[in-house]
Specification:
2 domains, 401 residues, Rossmann fold, seven-stranded mixed sheet
């Protein structure tokens, strides 16, 4: 069973911290001093505007901490905090501890943009970390870019957040197009020619549907049957009825959070049994917990190595910290851990005299960096660090390759 999550009400200035197998928020209290020497006061102010003080690096996050997608976002953050807390326990990076200020946007794009503006202007964060979702990122990336604030590892694979390349945005996961290309390539190779796409009726869902259409066109296959589904899964029966009427051999699920188990439950209540494929953001831990063996046979694209194997040193490191914190293993938490580890390396390379510009340059220097058996590759010409895509199948309530 996954670790229990417990959250206090979100407030500006709250910081995310895990305690055992629970996660809580606290408001940090900072000592303030008034200096009479003008040059020193000016220097202190300049540092705070960059999100860097003598002993703290302040990062910002806007994400769905409430609503139907909240479990997925919290899962991602739980993995990141394993690494950040380990760093802080060891004294920080270049003498500074990491503080992550988190604000809830409920997966609302307008609220996400407001949160990012607030994090930059009020909390004066050095960078944005792991902001959640396609629609929210499309609204908040322009805010961060206008302020020249790095936007690292957004939890989205939408091509619209990647093209054209934005120098302030660093992606750490393969795109939805790459995930769907992997699925369609596998299915086409075994003779499947008819597809359906169940997708959220939002920018995330549209990004997945566009990627599927493009994959079909490249292979000369008919356009997939498209069936929109609400993010809370409230119209799952209607979505099933639409794809069942088309009798497609395979269904690609561009879903996340509550919509994923809702669709599968509605499908199992019908007589239609297609092959099911889902994106990496499908909320697989929630699916297995809620459906158990009813999820058997579902194939999910993954953008990080399996957390259930120990081939990679970075996976072993993640598992050790997860065990210590009482957290169950998951692909999503591992992705958050990898993102935090990569970002921490950028902070380390940025040096003691850390600024946003120096952070960007440091991240660009991570070309072919070995994060622990997993190579990352940012540069001045590339802002996508990983292109890893694998397919995993759920069998007997767990993942196999």
């Amino acid at each position: 069973m996954p670790a229990a999550l417990s959250y206090a009400t979100m407030t500006s200035g709250s910081a995310l911290r895990p305690s055992g197998d629970k996660m809580t928020f606290f408001r940090p209290l900072r000592a303030m001093a008034v200096w009479t020497i003008a040059p020193l006061l000016i220097a202190t102010s300049a540092w705070s505007q960059q999100g860097v003080s003598d002993d703290t690096i302040t990062l910002g996050h806007s994400g769905a901490l409430s609503g139907p997608l909240s479990e997925l976002n919290k899962e991602y953050l739980s993995g990141a905090m394993l690494l950040f807390d380990q760093i802080n326990a060891r004294g920080g990076i270049n003498g500074r501890k990491i503080e992550l200020v988190t604000l809830d946007d409920g997966y609302n794009p307008e609220r996400a943009a407001e949160n990012v503006h607030r994090l930059i202007e009020k909390n004066q964060v050095l960078a944005l970390f792991g902001c959640f979702g396609t629609g929210p990122s499309l609204k908040s990336i322009p805010v961060a870019s206008a302020a020249k604030v790095p936007y690292f590892a957004p939890y989205t694979g939408a091509d619209a957040t990647r093209t054209p390349m934005n120098p302030m945005v660093f992606h750490l996961r393969a795109s939805y197009s790459q995930e769907i290309e992997k699925m369609v390539d596998h299915l086409a190779n075994i003779g499947v020619k008819s597809f359906a796409v169940v997708h959220h009726a939002d920018p995330f869902g549209q990004a997945g549907l566009d990627a599927a259409n493009a994959a079909m066109i490249r292979r000369g296959l008919p356009a997939p049957t498209a069936a929109p589904i609400a993010s809370d899964g409230s119209n799952a029966v209607e979505a099933v009825q639409k794809v069942a009427a088309a009798n497609s051999a395979a269904v690609i699920m561009v879903t996340a959070g509550n919509s994923s188990p809702a669709f599968i439950r509605a499908l199992l209540a019908s007589n239609y049994r297609p092959m099911l494929y889902g994106l990496s953001v499908i909320s697989s831990r929630q699916l297995i917990r809620e459906l158990g063996e009813q999820a058997n046979g579902l194939v999910i694209a993954q953008v990080v190595p399996s957390p259930f194997r120990v081939d990679y040193p970075i996976v072993r490191d993640y598992r050790q910290l997860a065990d210590k914190a009482g957290q169950s293993y998951s692909y999503t938490a591992l992705e958050g851990y990898i993102a935090a580890r990569s970002f921490a390396e950028g902070l380390r390379r940025g040096g003691r005299d850390l600024t946003r510009d120096k952070l960007v340059s440091a991240l660009e220097s991570l070309g072919d960096w070995d994060a622990g058996g997993l190579k990352l590759g940012f540069s001045s010409r590339s802002r996508t660090g990983l292109n890893f895509v694998d397919l995993a199948i759920i069998s007997k309530g767990r993942f196999t390759r």
